Amino acid sequence: MFIDKTEKETILKPLQVVIGIVERKQTLPILSNVLIEKEAGKIRFTATDLEIQITTTIETKAGGSEISSITVGGKKLQEIFRILPDQSKISIETKENKALIKANKSRFSLQTLPAQDFPKLNNQLTDAKKIVLHQSMLKKLLLSVQYAMAQQDVRYYLNGVLLIIEGNKLKVVATDGHRLAFNAGVIDGNHEKQEIIMPRKAVTELCKLLGDTNESVEVEFSTQQVKMIFSGINLITKVIDGKFPDYERVIPKYSNHLSMNRVLVQQALQRAAILSNEKFRGVRFVLTEKNLSIISSNSEHEEAQEEIETDYHGEAIDIGFNVNYLMDGLNNIGSEAVVFSFGDPNSSILITTPENQEFRYVVMPMRI
Predict the structure, then answer these.
(1) How far, in Å, are 318, 327, 328, 344 from residue 288 at the CA level?
(2) Nearest to 250, CA basis, from 319, 142, 347, 143
(3) Which whole-number Å values give the CA distances from 277 to 173, 272, 317, 320, 325, in the listed order?
(4) How far apart are CA 192 and CA 46, in angstroms?
(5) Is the pLDDT of residue 65 over 70?
(6) Which one, 21, 183, 249, 289, has least CB within 10 Å?
(7) What is the CATH number of domain 3-117?
(8) What torsion, rounded to 10 degrees, do the Cα atoms 314, 319, 325, 326 define?
(9) How far apart are CA 330 and CA 323, in angstroms?
(10) What are phi and psi of 313, to 5 degrees?
(11) Helical axes 8-18 vs 74-83, angle rounded to 10°
């Protein structure tokens, strides 16, 4: 018996940890599988797509004492376990090239592939640097910039987040060429400057897996790989080899500032977005003495206009933006107040918060 009478939840939880990187359709069939390894009192689950690998281990008394391993279709296994009644006792038996799953009066027979053929990532962490920080801090930093990552851009170095460790700070930057998000947090120690670009998929998985806790996460990073260890999870990812844009040059310094209630602007943008052009998603910010107008229109000549009272006393400005980009930034800011800083109608907008002096979000203007 590979696994004998173990509660469904005991196996489903670690399976859900690793399953996020498993694709149903793969060039290599074994990449659709999860590697399950059993040894005395422990069961280890591993998934990989050759760029990123996630492993998690559980302790169990129901695993038997012999050492054995199988690989089985990850998504199918997850669906089977998910739909079984709660508190079901599950047994898995291996017979030739099949995994036989029994639970209550249900029986499933799944194809397996040889465990020795599973392509684990080679360790490339020689001379790796190491930092330790709270999971909640790393999660907060990544969430504050991840929406600005590019998706499948030919400029491959934009399809991820730049991590900079320098002195006692961890800085994170993401850009897709139309907007840029920057944040930083204080870490222990005094470190030499090191930069790596972590791929989009690894960032997305970390945002899901990291907890909102003060439990630690160990981060090891070299020029080729990053390894994160936290809450019984071991995540290894290749890094993107490329030169990230000079983000400091993109972040402007302006003298025109407008402090606003974040939710108020958010709701006004949501309403204006309804009648914006479906393709270009443009809205105009018309800023005059003590007033902000948010205006949108579409190809059917429909128009929406929102008026917000302000304490603005600077020059009048009429400037267009992609409403989705503005909403992304506001949706990922935790603070009540936001500060919009403007240049001229052809310049980008800078969004900051009084609560976090490090956070910067820059959105390029668009012609409307």
Answers:
(1) 9, 22, 25, 13
(2) 347
(3) 29, 11, 22, 13, 14
(4) 33
(5) no
(6) 249
(7) 3.10.150.10
(8) 30
(9) 11
(10) -130, 15
(11) 140
CATH of domain 252-363: 3.10.150.10
For residue 252, the Cα-to-chain-centroid distance in whole angstroms is: 26
Does position 39 have pLDDT exceeding 70, yes or no? yes
Type of residue numbered 61: K
* Tens digits of residue pLDDT in 268-316: 999 999 999 999 999 999 999 999 999 999 999 999 999 999 999 888 9
Contact 196, 238 (CB under 8 A): no
CATH node for 129-249: 3.10.150.10
CATH 3.10.150.10 in the chain is located at 3-117, 129-249, 252-363
What is the per-residue pLDDT across 110-131, written as a single tens digit (0 to 9) for each?
999 999 999 999 999 988 999 9
pTM: 0.93
Instruction: Give the number of other CB atoms < 10 A from CB of residue 12.
Output: 19
Lookup result for tokens 């639970």 = 103
* Three-state helix/strand/coil letters over the chain: CCEEEEEHHHHHHHHHHHHHHCCCCCCCHHHHEEEEEEECCEEEEEEECCCEEEEEEEECCCCCCCCEEEEEEHHHHHHHHHHCCCCCEEEEEEECCEEEEEECCEEEEEEEECHHHCCCCCCCCCCCEEEEEEHHHHHHHHHCCHHHCCCCCCCHHHCEEEEEEEEEEEEEEEECCCEEEEEEEEEEEEEEEEEEEEEHHHHHHHHHHCCCCCCEEEEEECCCEEEEEECCEEEEEECCCCCCCCHHHHCCCCCEEEEEEHHHHHHHHHHHHCCCCCCCCEEEEEEECCEEEEEEECCCCCEEEEEEECCCCCCCEEEEEEHHHHHHHHHCCCCCEEEEEECCCCCCEEEECCCCCCCEEEECCCCC
pLDDT at 62: 55
Q: What six digits make up the tokens of 331?
A: 């949706």
